[in-house]
Amino acid sequence: MNILAAGIGVVVIGRNEGLRLERCLASLVGAAQQVVYVDSGSTDGSVQTALKLGAEVVELDMTIPFTAARARNEGFACVQRLLSQVRYVQFVDGDCEVVAGWLPRAQAFLDAQPEVAVVCGRRRERFPARSIYNFMCDLEWDTPIGEAKACGGDALMRADAFVAVSGFRADLIAGEEPELCVRLRAKGWKVWRLADEMTLHDAAMTRFGQWWRRTLRGGYAFAEGAFLHGATPEQHWRRESRRAWFWGLGIPLATLITCLLLGWSGLLLLLAYPLQVVRLARRGRGSSGKNWRLAFFLVLGKFPEMLGQIKFLLNRFGAGKTSLIEYK
Predict the structure, then answer these.
(1) Alpha carbons 310 and 316: distance in angstroms, whole number
(2) Beta strands in the chain (DSSP E)
(3) N or C: which end of the chain has fewer CB within 10 A?
(4) For every residue of 119-133, which 3-state class applies, written as one string?
(5) What pLDDT score does 326 carry?
């Protein structure tokens, strides 16, 4: 049963989420003073579903390049217009269901911790056993408890802090939440992760191609984050970017050069990959089978991450065209 959280607006973003969106909005009925759904060109009746469930709807102008960051900003602006006394805003992806009781617990935490601008809880994957890709998502969501560097797409934020840093960077096609948190922390705010259950996420990721594109998008986000904030003392996402280059291009290139100089013995350098899989599998927390599969995909993922890095460089400095990288 939901308890109305006063002074809270909710921004839900989505496109063609179908039943996932219906679950999301139903979980918010009676939970907040204002719910805004931002639609980005759905053709499955999402707008009608949102209206039926009592949400205010913002339909984005799709002639303007779409990003999730832009959608969230427009949703927040709508919340401000409709709820003049808004204190907090909960951002939610349309494929997530908000756990009952999360909003009042998160609000109580922010009320008691005036130095914290963003609070998030445990986002769980709805069907982690359906595919190895869903399982990896569920592990990705399980971040450490306490003060954090960043949040994901689901989080409760102070409206005044959000306004003070001008919200999300609308031109980012990925990684907009950690980038926002970098700017908030630079202003002296804190980001916090609670142990409380927050949302159920439905990645619906069952195909290798979906995982590849999602991982490529992650590499793009690492590159752009490092470009924007890598020179700061915390070196935002520089380590992640360097790993992508080392494993995704450095070792293959070194192997090629060594083979040209020394012959086929240079292929021994490629043993670094199975050795890395063994190292990661032995550090795993799950069953033996899952540990080995997870380790394999973590190593394999450096190749799409590296391609994401290259895509960013082409877009930023070359002839590439910035476009959304979607996996659904």
Answers:
(1) 10
(2) 5-14, 32-39, 56-59, 88-93, 96-98, 116-125, 146-148, 155-158, 190-201
(3) N
(4) EEEEEEECCCCCCHH
(5) 73
Kindly state the average pLDDT of the residues 69-98. Answer: 95
Query: Any idea how long the chain is?
Result: 328
Beta bridge partners of 304: none
- Residue 218, SS3 per DSSP: helix
Q: Which residue has the tokens 């219906």?
A: 22
36-64 pLDDT, tens digit each: 999 999 999 999 999 999 999 999 998 88
Instruction: From 151, 215, 140, 216, select the one nearest 182 (Cα to Cα).
Output: 151
Global pTM value: 0.91
**Alpha helices (H) in 31-188, listed in sequence order:** 46-52, 68-82, 102-112, 132-141, 159-164, 176-186
Q: Rounded to whole angstroms, what are the CA distances from 153 to 97, 156, 255, 273, 319?
A: 13, 10, 39, 32, 30
Helix 302-317 crosses helix 208-229 at what angle (to 10 degrees)? Answer: 50
Interatomic CA distance for residues 202 and 321, integer angstroms:
30
| Residue 98 neighbours by CB under 8 Å, 6+ apart | 10, 24, 27, 28, 31, 90, 92, 154, 198, 199
Q: Which two tokens stand for residue 270?
A: 């490629």
DSSP annotation string for 64-83: SPP-HHHHHHHHHHHHHHH-
What's the mean pLDDT when you consider all of the chain? 93
273 within 8 A of 295, measured Cβ to Cβ? no
Gap between the Cα atoms of 21 and 34, Å rounded: 17
Q: Are the beta carbons of 236 and 176 closer than 8 angstroms?
A: no
- Any bridge partners for residue 156, and if so which? 90, 119
Q: Specify which residues 57 forms β-bridges with.
A: 37
Q: Are strands 56-59 and 155-158 parallel, antiparallel or unpaired?
A: unpaired
Q: CB of 223 within 8 A of CB of 309?
A: yes
